[in-house]
Design brief:
binds zinc ion; single chain; 271 residues; alpha/beta; 30% helix
Length: 271
């Protein structure tokens, strides 16, 4: 079911990991950001858009993780974009075939994989998504995943945050593709903080939509977690024991701690 969060901006939330697909209405159709995950959910979204008489004219993937790189025939054959880094990373992952990605990421059965990751990279200097609709500013940073892009729809006051500012997931750091995952994450948060004043509503990749009065609190919560991780300090993050993540997020947290410790040992930095 589509839900309006601002004029001309609609959200479709998947049951799977509370993933949020974002639909932006343009002049000749919609921009669709991260369509969702399960086959049935993407079919539902395609049907909703059909009922509204709104074809998808442009697609966009926020970052190169499988749950944000999906597509389906029923959404049509519009161009699909991501940042240049995002597209290159997706291509790399797929170079050994889809089956390899499925296995490495543990992708569940009911996911449409035929069009996984087939996105075109936008040149780094391109600051807007190229399409016929409200301007969508691309805010690229390297937190969470290489080529991760938040997007600001300025005239609607909507920030699409990608996999940050979630009320259900702790910050998940990219421990593979980056030299300094902590600093990259903090830089990403600073970038979002820089536009917080222009935001009426924000949409995380997973979890609840937030209103203007929550944006700084979510940024602070993410930053506090990252600081605690950096300092290997005590973490009392409510997200570790809430919602669907309570069975597995504590394990992810332990892995992040271990991964950072191993990394600083390898790099010979004190830590
Ligand atoms: Zn995600």
């Amino acid at each position: 079911m589509l839900r309006q969060v601002a004029e001309g901006v609609l959200i479709h939330q998947s049951e799977f990991m509370q993933s949020n697909a974002v639909v932006v209405q343009g002049r000749a159709g919609v921009l669709l950001i991260d369509p969702g995950v399960l086959d049935s959910e993407i079919a539902c979204l395609a049907n909703d858009l059909y009922q509204l008489g709104q074809p998808v004219v442009t697609g966009f993937s926020t970052h190169p993780h499988w749950d944000h790189l999906l597509w389906d025939d029923r959404l049509g054959a519009s161009p699909r974009y991501g940042t240049a880094r995002c597209a290159a990373n997706a291509r790399d992952q797929l170079s050994d075939g889809v089956a390899q990605v499925v296995q490495a990421a543990g992708i569940p059965d009911q996911v449409p994989l035929d069009l996984l990751g087939l996105i075109t990279g936008l040149p780094a200097e391109m600051a807007q998504i190229p399409w016929d609709g409200p301007q969508v500013r691309i805010l690229e940073h390297q937190a969470h995943a290489s080529g991760h892009a938040a997007r600001l729809i300025e005239e609607r006051g909507v920030l699409v945050a990608g996999d940050m500012l979630s009320d259900v997931l702790i910050p998940l750091l990219d421990l593979n593709d980056t030299a300094d995952p902590i600093e990259d994450y903090l830089a990403g948060l600073r970038l979002l903080e820089g536009v917080a004043g222009d935001v009426d509503v924000f949409v995380p990749g997973h979890g609840s939509i937030g209103a203007v009065d929550q944006v700084r609190a979510r940024i602070d919560q993410d930053r506090a977690y990252v600081h605690a991780l950096r300092d290997a300090g005590f973490v009392s993050d409510p997200r570790l024991s809430a919602t669907y993540g309570k069975d597995w997020l504590p394990g992810v947290h332990e892995r992040q701690l271990r991964g950072l410790a191993e990394k600083s040992e390898r790099d010979g930095t004190p830590g």
